[in-house]
């Protein structure tokens, strides 16, 4: 059975249908169940009334909770999870490393540094944090690419080392900025631990265009990851230019990661856990892994956010929930990948 799955190279329609159905169930559960006890039957009645023009069983305030808090939050969780999971699958394919994640090239460090500087420099101006994090994430990736290109010829090994160096430097800048105003440390760490604090549809509309563009590029180009897995010489013999393909895929994956980070903070393990689960269940071809990781990542983060906002009276940071779920899986992947990580 494992061998047959490993050789699956086409995305079968029934897999997509099954993944979409699971995603729809997760979306519905996220809207029906929340910290405010509205009753799932009454929420269903509100959805039906909104669709048909009938009378809602909810008050105006309760309806606002559904449409201005729950629905955009669930959709945002799906967008962020999809972005991180498909980006993680892409990074693993580009670097041919099963432990690669979306933050490998300094996106997390850049976003964290930029968000920290904004919090320290303009206390209370939280509206500037998302655009600053977006710019910081792209800036961190850009610095890694420039450094890798000038010192390592643009190869994957040079990019990896550049990402480590840039990440360490930007993290040091972030720590220095925190020390300039220690009163903001709590606010900074709240952002760093990740969360989906929506105040309407703004966050969804901000992230959606970038993630949608990246998703189209990555899903359409997924077959090129299969070609790259054969080696650069074989890829060139098939008419593929490895350097250009890697740049395109890393740019699209970094764009999706930056958009996700800008509205959610730093949420770990999604980009490692989901692609590996997809490989185990559906096959190792990136024509299968990338699109199913997109759907699976949405399901995973919606479920994790559901736990974060309902398991305790006070809301848990979303990054803590994904760490609880992802850390044991990461250890299992690490053990199974000994000798394969390059």
TrEMBL record:
Primary site of residence: membrane
InterPro entries xrefs? ABC_BtuC-like (IPR037294), ABC_transptr_permease_BtuC (IPR000522)
- GO BP term, example: siderophore-iron import into cell
Query: Where in or outside the cell?
Result: Cell membrane
For this UniProt entry, the molecular function terms from Gene Ontology, in alphabetical order, are: transmembrane transporter activity
Membrane topology per record: Multi-pass membrane protein
* Entry keywords, A to Z: Cell membrane, Membrane, Transmembrane, Transmembrane helix, Transport
Segments passing through the bilayer: 12-36, 74-91, 103-122, 128-147, 159-177, 204-226, 247-272, 284-304, 316-334
> GO cellular-component terms in the record?
plasma membrane
Q: Entry's PANTHER family? A: ABC TRANSPORTER PERMEASE PROTEIN MJ0876-RELATED, FERRIC ENTEROBACTIN TRANSPORT SYSTEM PERMEASE PROTEIN
As for family, the record states:
Belongs to the binding-protein-dependent transport system permease family. FecCD subfamily.
Tell me the protein's name. ABC transporter permease
Please give the organism. Amycolatopsis bartoniae
